[in-house]
Amino acid sequence: MKEEFPASVAIQVLPQVGTDEEVVRIVDEVIAYIKSTGVNYYVGPFETTMEGDYEQLMEIVKQCQYIAVKAGCPQVASYVKISYKPQGGVLTIAQKVTKYHR
Q1: Which residues form a coiled coil (predicted)?
Q2: Which fold has domain 7-100?
Q3: Per-residue pLDDT tens for 39-66?
Q4: Where are the domains of the chain?
Q5: Per 3-state DSSP, what percentage of the chain is helix, strand, and coil (rounded to 5)?
Q6: Alpha-helical segments (H) within 3-92
Q7: Could you tell me the pTM of the whole model?
Q8: Number of Cβ within a 10 Å radius of residue 1
Q9: Biggest alpha carbon distance in the chain?
Q10: Whole-angstrom distance, CA of residue 43 vs CA of residue 49
């Protein structure tokens, strides 16, 4: 049976710090937080996509900013993409990328 989700959210967190190493360190902390939430997620080269309950995903997006600041980032910018269908059935991560990873 196909699992249906009411929302899919992609977030790109852009720490405003001085070095690439710091960017990677802070983004790694944000991804670790996303992983800890238990939502289904996929890390890509520019953004992380999550799927699940809309309210939960919006809370995660909010917390990602706080995680970046707590990790030592004085300023953070984020780009967020949202696909929301209250009755469920947005395209899943698997539907979008599986055919490219065989």
Answers
A1: none
A2: Alpha-Beta Plaits (3.30.70)
A3: 999 999 999 999 999 999 999 999 999 9
A4: 7-100
A5: 40, 25, 30
A6: 20-36, 54-70
A7: 0.92
A8: 3
A9: 47
A10: 6
